[in-house]
């Protein structure tokens, strides 16, 4: 395993655990893609590149060969303008206004470990021996521009991490019009395209469609990764499913506007492109300056989507998330948002916390409404000082009351926003994103602060740090509740206005870096109206995310199932809330709400003081049960067994890494008359081991559970049912 360079053939063979990725310096220095798939012992060009004279696919000048065209060459980082007519990975505008750039191989370097990406989130190694990196420098002779491509292969994973850095090595200023992070040219189109799409309250629904000629793309133009499309796509071989078949995953470690697309060309090749959305983007590079593209994480699985997900989970849980909570079990929280909304008093908060303490809850989170004059969502964002009318004892007074009950205290903030009705906005009306001579569009009555500006970032960092230092705060929920509009900055010159959105992300990342390092004992959870920014970029700073504002147990099956495609279960915040559910008005049992929420990072979000004695008993049992399975759920391997996107039933399970214990959940949405007898086949257990099902006391072989499966009791009736099985090695 590692990276092997064949001097004679000029090929690079990146070998991971079960995957190989091969590229070559071809002809006059073009960087060609040869192979990505199952691990090969050696690459000897069995599937050799072939060239014929293709009509309307021109020939680059230096080739002097009518059969050679960039239009037919599978490439690693293609450009536009010199015979490749497919979507380019980059586009640069030179001083004379033209946009043709001809990148050729200049040099390369192979080294152990993985470099950090300046100012950007990225996966990392803890030891240089975990991975090897190939750094290839490409150069355009005419302009002096260089592009450095980074490829990291992890020895024990099926992961290739890619990024690109554009360096203006010439003397004139250039404009970067397009700067994608990864490009992969597959030599066929026999794939399905999988994406995670949705909206507020129904984030990350799985969509799978056959590829067709032309471009199939997903993107965000909202300035955040978005509820609507997640920065992830996969290509699945026809017939690939949950546990079998070949899958190629592409996940983008970025939280702003992105583009992910697959283009099927005239010869039925497929080009995948992934990066910052070129729409409304450009970046001026002075001589000597460079532009770092964010990282793309590419996963190969020959064990279907399940294999792909487990690779992402393990990598993102242990080599993307950071900080002291990375490897710790996460506290079970109660959040007051759906319990009180803005209408709370210290007494009410204390009552909820007390009820929580009696049930075994470990952390109380004070949500929106504690600052400025914030009694509804129209005011005070930006005024990060406590509302003394509402909380006369201050944040510290309240936190101490909660701490005295034995619970940790957590706080909600929304640092990136400002209300028009706020002291901050009255003082600094130019601190929000806006463009001259145009009205400022609001959303939820708020404006977006201009985090592309250092002064704004500094002021907000100080204000938030002040609030966090003012009380014993052990958890922060970092919210962000609107998409960007009028994306412009008062601090940037005209030619740099289209840099605003990416500069915003860099500013945001630096604020998050500062605050999370200044407060290492605080557990940070990100949120954006639920799951509007559930992406790997934010996970680098905050190891868990509020998955969706939709807390309905039935809706959550699809939301959590889709989210689990890429994101580790420990990151997936999941709360039991009141019924009728506040988002969809559905009534589900406490058992089913608990089972759905226990399938993630468990919390409660309802007025616990209003529970009946019977409900309290049930919640107490749930919490005790979750504490018993928490390590398996949060750190075990996740197997999806039945998809809510394919029918009325959902099932999934969590398996301890040594396969000695597991817990499985089953959900049936609607009861059906005369229904067939159901069963669930378990995955991930050791087929040679024998296990006992705690609920029934029955003992089965791992092989029997995998192939014959467990019966769903015929007595299970009624809508919105759930079952849980605790499985232990005998
Ligand atoms: C949106 C979040 O997703 C909710 O959980 C809650 O924190 C509200 N914002 C508060 O305004």
Please describe what this structure looks like.
It is a single chain. The mean pLDDT is 98. The two termini are 37 Å apart. Among the domains are: 76-319, alpha-galactosidase from lactobacil brevis (Beta-galactosidase, Chain A, domain 5, Distorted Sandwich), CATH 2.70.98; 642-729, Immunoglobulin-like (Sandwich), CATH 2.60.40.1180. It has 12 helices and 38 strands. By secondary structure, the chain is an alpha+beta fold. The strands form 7 sheets. Strands 6, 7, 8, 9, 11, 12, 14, 15, 19 and 20 form a 10-stranded antiparallel sheet that branches. Strand 27, helix 8 and strand 28 (544-546) form a beta-alpha-beta unit. It is 19% helix and 31% strand. Bound molecules: (2R,3S,4R,5S)-2-(hydroxymethyl)piperidine-3,4,5-triol. Residues 337, 367-368, 412, 479, 481, 527, 529-530, 546, 549 line the site of (2R,3S,4R,5S)-2-(hydroxymethyl)piperidine-3,4,5-triol (DGJ).
């Amino acid at each position: 395993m590692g990276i092997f360079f064949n001097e004679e053939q000029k090929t690079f063979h990146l070998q991971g655990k079960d995957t190989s990725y091969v590229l070559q310096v071809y002809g006059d220095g073009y960087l060609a893609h040869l192979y990505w798939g199952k691990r090969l012992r050696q690459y000897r060009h069995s599937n050799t590149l072939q060239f014929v004279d293709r009509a309307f696919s021109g020939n680059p000048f230096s080739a002097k060969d009518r059969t050679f065209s960039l239009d037919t060459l599978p490439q690693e980082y293609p450009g536009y303008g010199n015979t490749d007519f497919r979507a380019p990975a980059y586009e640069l505008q030179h001083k004379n206004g033209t946009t043709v750039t001809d990148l050729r191989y200049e040099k390369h370097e192979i080294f152990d470990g993985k470099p950090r990406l300046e100012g950007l989130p990225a996966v990392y190694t803890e030891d240089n021996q975990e991975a090897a990196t190939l750094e290839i420098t490409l150069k355009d002779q005419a302009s002096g521009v260089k592009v450095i491509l980074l490829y990291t292969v992890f020895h024990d994973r099926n992961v290739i991490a890619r990024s690109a850095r554009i360096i203006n090595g010439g003397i004139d200023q250039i404009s970067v019009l397009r700067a994608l992070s990864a490009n992969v040219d597959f030599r066929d189109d026999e794939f399905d395209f999988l994406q995670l799409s949705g909206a507020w309250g129904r984030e990350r629904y799985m969509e799978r469609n056959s590829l067709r000629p032309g471009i199939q793309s997903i993107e965000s133009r909202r300035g955040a990764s978005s509820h609507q499309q997640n920065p992830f796509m996969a290509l699945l071989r026809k017939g690939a499913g949950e546990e079998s078949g070949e899958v190629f995953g592409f996940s983008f470690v970025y939280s702003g506007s992105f583009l992910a697309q697959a283009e099927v060309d005239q010869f039925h090749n497929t080009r995948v492109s992934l990066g910052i959305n070129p729409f409304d983007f450009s970046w001026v590079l002075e001589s000597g300056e460079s532009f770092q593209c964010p990282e793309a994480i590419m996963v190969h699985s020959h064990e279907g989507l399940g294999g792909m997900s487990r690779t992402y989970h393990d990598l993102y849980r242990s080599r993307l998330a950071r900080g002291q909570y990375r490897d710790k079990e996460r506290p079970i929280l109660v959040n007051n948002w759906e319990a009180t909304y803005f209408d709370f008093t210290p007494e009410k908060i204390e009552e909820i916390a007390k009820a929580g303490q009696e049930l075994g809850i470990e952390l109380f989170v004070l949500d929106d409404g504690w600052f400025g004059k914030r009694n509804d969502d129209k005011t005070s964002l930006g005024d990060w000082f406590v509302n003394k009318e509402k909380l006369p004892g201050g944040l510290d007074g309240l936190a101490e009351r909660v701490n005295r009950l034995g619970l940790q205290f957590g706080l909600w903030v929304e640092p990136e926003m400002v209300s028009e009705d706020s002291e901050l906005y009255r003082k600094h009306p130019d601190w929000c994103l806006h463009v001259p001579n145009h009205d400022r569009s609001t959303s939820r009555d708020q404006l977006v602060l201009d985090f592309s500006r250092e002064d704004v970032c500094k002021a907000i960092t100080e204000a938030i740090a002040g609030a966090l230092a003012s009380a014993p705060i052990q958890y922060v929920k970092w919210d962000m509740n609107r998409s960007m509009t009028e994306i412009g900055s008062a601090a940037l010159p005209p030619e740099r206005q289209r840099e605003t959105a990416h500069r915003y992300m860099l500013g945001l990342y630096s604020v998050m870096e500062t605050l999370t390092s200044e407060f290492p004992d605080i557990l940070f959870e990100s949120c954006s109206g639920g799951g509007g920014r559930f992406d790997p970029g934010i996970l680098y700073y905050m190891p868990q995310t509020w998955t969706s504002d939709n807390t309905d147990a039935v809706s959550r099956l699809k939301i959590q199932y889709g989210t689990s495609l890429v994101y580790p279960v420990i990151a997936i915040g999941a709360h039991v809330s009141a019924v009728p559910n506040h988002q969809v008005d559905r009534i589900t049992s406490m058992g089913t709400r608990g089972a759905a929420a226990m399938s993630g990072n468990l919390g409660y979000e309802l007025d616990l003081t209003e529970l009946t004695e019977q409900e309290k008993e049930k919640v107490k049992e749930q919490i005790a049960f979750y504490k018993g399975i928490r390590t398996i759920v949060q750190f075990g391997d996740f197997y999806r067994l039945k998809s809510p996107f394919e029918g009325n039933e959902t099932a999934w399970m969590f398996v301890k890494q040594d396969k000695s214990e597991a817990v499985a959940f089953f959900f049936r949405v609607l009861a059906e008359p005369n229904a067939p007898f159901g069963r669930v086949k378990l995955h991930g257990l050791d087929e040679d081991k024998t296990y006992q099902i705690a609920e029934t006391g029955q003992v089965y072989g791992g092989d029997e559970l995998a192939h014959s499966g467990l019966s769903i009791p015929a007595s299970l009736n009624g809508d919105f049912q759930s079952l849980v099985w605790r499985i232990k090695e005998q």
